[in-house]
Write a structure and sequence with these properties.
Layout lengths: L13 H33 L12 E3 L5 E3 L7 E7 L4 H17 L3 E7 L5 H10 L6 E3 L2 H6 L8 E5 L5 E6 L4 H19 L11
Parallel strand pairs: 3-4, 4-5
Antiparallel strand pairs: 1-2, 3-6, 6-7
Helix pairs in contact: 1-5
């Protein structure tokens, strides 16, 4: 007489169960990482999603000896980029920031703040060698705190004419997303000033 197979499922070993949960945790961490990095990029590109919302107040000393404050920049769109000479993604990103400065420098302020601990002369030479001429200085402690702390390099803030941070992007900022966010803020500002006008930001 044959034995009837047990209807009970075999129990999983503790090791197999632990591995299964480990896979789920790793997947969740990867999804959170992707959302943290790609979410702000997509929001900057499309304008969909909440704005960052902070209003940082700061004053920085630039390499040319002049000072620039958040109050000075009211009325203009600002792209504030925290970077370092040793940072690989920063080196990739800086040409796009320079191009934005070249194209829209009269309308948009591109501001670089370096986290380098090297002498300022070394950082200045690094910029000159690469023909970077948009405003740059060193990130000081007060400005770091005003920006809510810096955990990644690069970190880029897209700030509206009202001083409100609309987008905060950690890591390399895709140039199309960067330009789309800037153009949208320009268009919104122009529309607010004159609802019947077509903004320069609608130029291709």
């Amino acid at each position: 007489m044959s034995e009837t197979p047990s209807s009970e499922e075999p129990r999983r070993s503790p090791l197999r169960t632990a591995l299964k949960w480990g896979e789920r945790i790793v997947l969740a961490v990867l999804l959170l990482f992707a959302f943290e990095r790609l979410g702000p990029q997509l929001s900057a590109w499309t304008g969909i999603g909440p704005i960052e919302g902070s209003v940082p107040e700061y004053e920085v000393t630039l390499f040319d000896g002049s000072t620039l404050s958040s109050e000075d920049l009211r009325g203009k769109v600002v792209v504030l980029n925290v970077w370092a000479t040793w940072c690989g993604p920063c080196r990739i990103e800086i040409p796009a920031l320079q191009a934005l400065h070249d194209d829209l420098g009269d309308e948009v302020v591109v501001l670089g703040l370096s986290t380098d601990i090297a002498p300022r002369g070394t950082v200045e030479s690094w910029l000159k060698e690469r023909r970077v001429d948009y405003p740059n200085g060193l990130l000081d402690g007060a400005t770091r705190r005003a920006l809510g702390g810096i955990s990644h390099t690069p970190t880029t803030f897209v700030i509206g004419p009202d001083g409100v941070v609309h987008h905060k992007v950690l890591g390399l900022f895709a140039p199309p997303a960067m330009r789309a966010s800037v153009r949208r803020l320009q268009r919104d500002a122009a529309t607010a000033a004159d609802p019947t006008s077509l903004s320069l930001a609608e130029r291709p």
